[in-house]
């Protein structure tokens, strides 16, 4: 078997998996910018919104940061994978960028 992966045939956000007589390119984990294999522990560097913890890229919970990220009145923070979103609190709805009581 020839190791086709030795020549780095895959794209930037993929890793090479050598198979008998061939190879395949697999997508890196969403938490990675470039990787050497499968999973968040094989990242070359962590993607935006992720931090290296115990050799793995883990999601940053922006909603628990000391500095509030959702600063408008009656607005709640919802953590998402690699990011966050600001939503109106229960009983409020978005009207032209302001959370008003429903």
Descriptors:
2 domains; EGF-like domain; 102 residues; 47% strand; EGF; mainly beta; two-stranded antiparallel ribbon; 0% helix
Question: What share of the residues lie within helices?
Answer: under 10%
| Average of pLDDT | 95
Number of strands: 10
Domain count: the total is 2
Strand content: over 45%
| Largest sheet, spatial ordering of strands | 1-2
Subunit organisation of the chains: single chain
> Compute the gyration radius: what is it?
20 Å
The low-confidence runs, each spanning 5 or more residues with pLDDT under 50, are: none
Envelope shape? elongated
User: What is the count of DSSP helices, taking H or I runs of 4+ residues?
Assistant: 0
Please give the largest β-sheet: 2 strands, antiparallel
Model description:
- The protein has no helices and ten strands.
- It is mainly β and 102 residues long.
- The protein folds into two domains: 4-59, no CATH class; 62-93, no CATH class.
Topology, please?
Elements: E1 14-19, E2 22-27, E3 32-35, E4 43-46, E5 50-53, E6 56-59, E7 75-80, E8 83-88, E9 92-95, E10 98-101
Antiparallel strand pairs: 1-2, 3-4, 5-6, 7-8, 9-10
Describe this structure in a few short sentences.
With 102 residues, the chain is an all-beta fold.
